[in-house]
Amino acid sequence: MALDYAVIAAYVLGMIGMGWWGMRRATSKSEYLVAGRRLGFTMYSGTMSAVVLGGASTIGGVGLGYKYGVSGAWMVFAIGLGILLLSALFARRIVRLKVYTVSQMLDLRYGGNSSMVSGLVMAAYTLMLTVTSTIAYSTIFNVLFGLPKSVGVIIGGGIVVLYSVLGGMWSITLTDIVQFVVKTVGILFLLLPISLATAGGFDGIQQRLNDPAMFEVGNIGVSTIVTYLLIYVFGLLIGQDIWQRVFTAKSPQVATWGGITSGLYCLVYAVAGALIGLAGKALYPDIANKDEAFATIVENLLPTGVRGLVLAAALAAMMSTSSGALIACATVASNDIWRRKAEAGRNAASDVHDNRMFTLVIGVVAIAIAVALNDVVAALTVAYNILVGGLLVAIIGGLVWKRGTRLGAMASMAAGSLTAIGFMVFVDVYANEAIYYSLGASFVTYVVVSLATPATDPAVLANWDRRVAGDATEEELVNA
Predict the structure, then answer these.
(1) Could you give the CA distance from residue 465 to residue 447 in angstroms, rounded to a whole number?
(2) Where do the TM regions start and end (predicted)?
(3) 3-state secondary structure 59-113
């Protein structure tokens, strides 16, 4: 195991070193939160891929493949479709707005101040998203060192919090590029072919399992597939962690084509995870917990050194999503929630310091929650149900329907969020009805209240059209 330890140690030290280097570049709010809005095609597509493919996509995706076969690809496949739709339909407009949060977009579109309501919903989503990847650290450190879950979570979470606090989005972008390369090599070029070859290819897997359902695309169930599409496709359209990456693009063209490239990569990653899990089922059929399938496959199948690289790839997947969600949560908290109370005493010199403090505090809170929770997919389901049920209609409605009003948006947020939470609390976290009914309640409320209230002020809509066209003034950019 000495070589495995060396590979992991080198990776971790590299992440911390990039955090230190990024600190030198994060000298303003724009640099700290959105990397100065300067990322080109290669860096943008790499960091977008890294942020959406985290612990749930890697550990959870392999686990779903272990349980359902090729049909286990649907969760991560839906994530890829979400990135494709976002990039093709909305990325250009999002880049031109030159804002920092989704809530600021809502304020521009509807007028007034809805940031507190939408900010609270978005903060809950990004916090839970941070938690899901933080939980997954424990599986890697358990394989490497036999450490209990809580210790693994604290070590992994501490590393992410350290480099995120130091350099903000610059550190996260730099580490994401490394993480993207490591996970591509580790998962796609090493673990996938080795696991399939060891299991005897598809013919060998069929003979070992003798279960045709494991090769059926719909084995996971139609209702589950529909739920994944609703939660993840729509969730990727509106999540602060995703929009914040879009804000980093240096042009609308980069955001569009870099995002489409990232979406296609996610589709490949989805199939790879399911096939690795399928091969693992054929080789190790008695794993009790599907989320332990990834670690079991790596521990038993790969030679030393290669095992360290693949475990580093898993850490890379977790850390990229965790750090992206962490800075997204801190951005929402500092710009949409706390700023409303402290705006009078705010000055440019304190922006970076304030955002660092929010990143640190929220990181510590996320680690504490992760220690207390166990189920990665359940935590991710909670996050996306709250996000999609609460904010999807107001955000997409604002982008495509001029008659939508601020009161309609706020009422739809309340109705959708409360409905989603109610179903998860009183029925089941995994209840498909949570997303169906919350979206229905949000949509009906949005349309009815918007039509029943005065239309949005023409001056607000004119300002919105100007910003969507990319005509933000320097003063508007400074005060964003």
Answers:
(1) 21
(2) 6-23, 44-66, 72-95, 116-145, 151-173, 180-200, 220-243, 264-284, 309-334, 355-373, 379-400, 407-429, 435-456
(3) HHHHHHHHHHHHHHHHHHHHHHHHHHHHHHHHHHHHHHHCCCCHHHHHHHHHCCC
